[in-house]
Amino acid sequence: xxxxxxxxxxxxxxxxxxxxxxxxxxxxxxxxxxxxxxxxxxxxxxxxxxxxxxxxxxxxxxxxxxxxxxxxxxxxxxxxxxxxxxxxxxxxxxxxxxxxxxxxxxxxxxxxxxxxxxxxxxxxxxxxxxxxxxxxxxxxxxxxxxxxxxxxxxxxxxxxxxxxxxxxxxxxxxxxxxxxxxxxxxxxxxxxxxxxxxxxxxxxxxxxxxxxxxxxxxxxxxxxxxxxxxxxxxxxxxxxxxxxxxxxxxxxxxxxxxxxxxxxxxxxxxxxxxxxxxxxxxxxxxxxxxxxxxxxxxxxxxxxxxxxxxxxx
Amino acid sequence: xxxxxxxxxxxxxxxxxxxxxxxxxxxxxxxxxxxxxxxxxxxxxxxxxxxxxxxxxxxxxxxxxxxxxxxxxxxxxxxxxxxxxxxxxxxxxxxxxxxxxxxxxxxxxxxxxxxxxxxxxxxxxxxxxxxxxxxxxxxxxxxxxxxxxxxxxxxxxxxxxxxxxxxxxxxxxxxxxxxxxxxxxxxxxxxxxxxxxxxxxxxxxxxxxxxxxxxxxxxxxxxxxxxxxxxxxxxxxxxxxxxxxxxxxxxxxxxxxxxxxxxxxxxxxxxxxxxxxxxxxxx
Lengths: 313, 283
Description:
With 313 residues, chain A is α/β, with parallel strands linked by helices. Chain A has twelve helices and 13 strands.
């Protein structure tokens, strides 16, 4: 990719705000998405991710700020922008009364594409989505993973410049998720710009070049997964379990170990650069955890640090 | 070339300067096309319904009640037309209304609630108005088919003496679409079915069928009940059909009123549907 293409801004949001009455769902966020990158919006439920997606998808009008997609303002040129987008919504919205292949063809018609283009295109997309054998069955008989793949294939029928994926793997089993990641990764390699919302950290680490962590409508942090881990977490994490009765008491004795200690009801987390050495020191000091684990710090640690551990429902 | 690359190369040749140009011009038709494809799944029901429904009515009312009434009274006034000729235009319009209801009730609720496919259409460059117009357009195709078949049966039963009888068809079709547009406006507001459609069937469609001058002239009803006919699209379409089918005499201004009423109903139904579709899809 050339220097100029690399710097092409596909989406630019400045002070982007969306309010539903008194509820401010998106509270003045700024971000940019560049051509060919996979950009992630992370956050707990209610963080405002899907609302941002709907504004980018040019179907929900912003309440304030600026938003430009492919250089166009969605308030003024919604249909023009939508012609360049592929949208994979959180909930599948396939036509369950139609057959798998017909879902692709019917959708292609919405972009004004002719049948002579759509017939071979549908076969290619079925191949891409590994659904060729299911082409003639009704959508209702597909598994959850297959429906997701069909929804993604459908979103590609107009060959979009930007593919928007809202929680693409929620509710899928691990095998189905991995197949889906593989398909998305191939699209990214083919130069499609991806915007993904997720609350799965492994998904974000797998797919996203760059991401923002959101909470309560605001951006808490932004960067590459590695940079975020470096900035907001330590290199390694030691997880110790002493039994729920003793964790809090033992944590006091461990004060000063590592860079930071977090005490949870079921375990103690020590954020450190030297996990194995710290664990050895703790055991040498006479403490006997029921279980212990040293692991690399993950995006999940960053996420929980930034958005807290309280449950949002 | 890999599947991924092929899956992402080629459409540009078919798009003009502006990708959404064709969608903006023909979006409603694409929605209609989609609905017609969906109808193929229940094509058999549509065809059977359109054929057997008139047959049942015409045998029952023509050979049964009709022959009884005609034998005992020597036919109805205005040149002693048969009872079937009198009731035929009403049945024709009623069939159109029922199809309008069927195609604008559950498909609209389903598009918002069950399949959520209206959101998928709107994610493409299709506007809320185009979604609503397309659904009504597809209903129109079914209305045309049903009315044409019904009209064919009426001809077979010699229930259409006037050469201008064919004009009963557009009248019936207009009433089907006008009623359908109002049903669409209601269906688009519903978050759940909650028995609303069953209630409309029992408390709106059934009384409309019984009290709109379908089986006897509206003037026979007490004045206090005649308003049901006046507000009913079925009565207006039926009267238009009777003027066409056997030259029923009525003042021209009244005929104009029938047409005007149905057109205004269609416009209001569509306008309300546009508003609700837009509100729901942009939420």
